[in-house]
Amino acid sequence: MKIKILLVDDHQIVLKGISFFLAMQPDFELVGEAHNGKEAVEKAAELQPDIILMDLNMPIMDGIEASNLIAQRNPDIKVLVLTSFSDRSHIMPALQAGAIGYMLKDVEPDQLAEAIRSAYKGNIQLHPDIASALLTPSSASAAETKPLPEQPVRGLAESLTPREMEVLRLLTRGMSNKEIAGALTVAEKTVKSHVSSILGKLNLSDRTQAALYAVHALGSDGQES
User: Going along the chain, which residue ranges are E strands?
Assistant: First the structure.
């Protein structure tokens, strides 16, 4: 079964280039194109793709608003942002709007293909440069994005068990419950239980929020900053 993809971008050259690349992948099927967020919302409902590659800066309706509407109306469709913007003022709102991942247009073609396949499986996808952008303190106003839960960064180890900390670190890599279970040599249902416990303790609603929270709280070595 092929992964059905809807491509959303207002630049014709970009559309043609990515369309050509997608057509070369044996497991991808480009089911449609949209040139702005409003078209993306309409075509998402009509075509029911598995993955939407969503640009952000577009006329009529931007990609963040479109992602939010799609998440509300078609929660099974996964939005993977593909943009040129690498700043927090775009990253955080896009992910909070429901996008499963955030990729930059300078990504290598093979990396984009793997990101699409992994996002299709439900795994969080972040461009290599995005994690460092998220770790950089923001000077933006508080109104720019919704704040993360008021959980002290240095209180993670006190809130979570050692095993839950291990699971959280693996979540930040975009790993699925099955992959985490394999890495930790435990049952998948055990990982699911740990994830539920983590979300409850940190007052988070989903895996994406947990991964983003951990990116803020944990350094590149996986230790609390």
Answer: 3-8, 28-34, 51-54, 78-83, 101-104, 125-126
Cβ(123)–Cβ(176) under 8 Å?
yes
Of the pLDDT bands very low, low, confident and very high (cuts 50, 70, 90), residue 151 is: very low
SS (H, E, C) 57-121: CCCCCCHHHHHHHHHHHCCCCEEEEEECCCCHHHHHHHHHCCCCEEEECCCCHHHHHHHHHHHHC
List pLDDT tens digits, range 202-212.
Answer: 887 777 667 76
What is the dotted CATH code of the domain comprising 3-135? 3.40.50.2300
Distance from C-alpha of 139 to C-alpha of 147, rounded to nearest angstrom:
13
| Domain boundaries, given as residue ranges, for the chain | 3-135, 153-217
